[in-house]
């Protein structure tokens, strides 16, 4: 009784609509942004230099540089920086020396020059990195081209961090041509991979402002956190022309134990032209995908479980713009009807979805939002879902719990369609009998995007958009919109953009 009184008081004093999210009992309610530790500012250490005209017997000074990156990395101490002059370095780079808190070991491209770490002609043995961090931590890599590591038998990784090593910073790198070149969908390679296969997680990770493009990853991913990986931020990266998954967060079963990635933030990335999904969150715990541009991939964002092992729990999808994908914009749960490992406690808030399902499967159209088998406790609020003519706004079925949904703006150039248990529903009133409450949602109002001409598509809101202020407060809505601008300008707007 007392709890109810407090709740009502909170509602009346803030004058906001109070929605209480669906939440599995006993689940801890973590915050969107994970605490980040580890300083990025570098204290003055020694600068070493590497040049393709250098000599590993030299002293590594600017005037007398080393020849190889690996040599330089053996002489550093915490706080030191290795500057690499322009040119192509064909070597597998390994970090044998750790930095320390506030004193990273930094490998950095010399300013104004182009330093390339290339695997051209090198053999890939098993699962092997061109750049490997498995025996050092507090490592920063800044500004390199990391490329052309290819195999038809081994599984290359452009950069791999494993063996429980923490505090990795990857900034401003270009990763490309990391290719598994055997039969499609048999190899398993990664542009950048954080891999935790022991109880000690690989943690405290920042991957920012990198480009990963033109990689053939087989069943792997362009940027991945697999297994025991925690406290990671993947932000402002651009990923395109890739196989399988753009950004993959997935649990794994290794060494006799299931290991789950946790506390990750995937924010302000752009992912396009990736075959299977832009972002895939399978079997993790507390993973936020916020303010990403996702288009022309297979599925936009999928959140589910690792079949036979674990559901994905607490996936928080906010402020994303997702358009022109071949399949669904957002898929929740699992496509494996026999599996109990779907998604639970999903938050789908303030996303803008537009004309996905461009190439529906032969089995029929999916939803723009497709709540599949075992999509449990899904909260669907403040989204703009603009469907193509034959498209379905939301698909759900009785193998999942009823989604909790409201303040969504549905619109289509064709026939209004939702689907529940395989039956098409053409009116919002009937849809409300399956998905509650939806009383503030609309289905006849054009959201008023700035431009829907495909060549100059802009899914931000025009000044007279009726999506303005039609949203509601809901737990886990971030402070900012897709542009990093304030989310709370008057009442919350629907969709990824807040009009300022
Ligand atoms: Ca507003
Ligand atoms: Ca805005």
UniProtKB/TrEMBL annotation:
The keyword Transport does not apply. It holds the Pfam family Beta_helix. Residues 230-399 form the Right handed beta helix domain. Keywords: Secreted, Signal. The keyword Manganese does not apply. GO terms for cellular component: extracellular region. InterPro entries: Beta_helix (IPR039448), PbH1 (IPR006626), Pectin_lyas_fold (IPR012334), Pectin_lyase_fold/virulence (IPR011050), Polysaccharide_Lyase_9 (IPR052052). Its main location: secreted. GO terms for molecular function: carbon-oxygen lyase activity, acting on polysaccharides. It is found in: Secreted. This is Right handed beta helix domain-containing protein. It comes from Chitinophaga rupis. The lineage of its organism: Bacteria, Pseudomonadati, Bacteroidota, Chitinophagia, Chitinophagales.
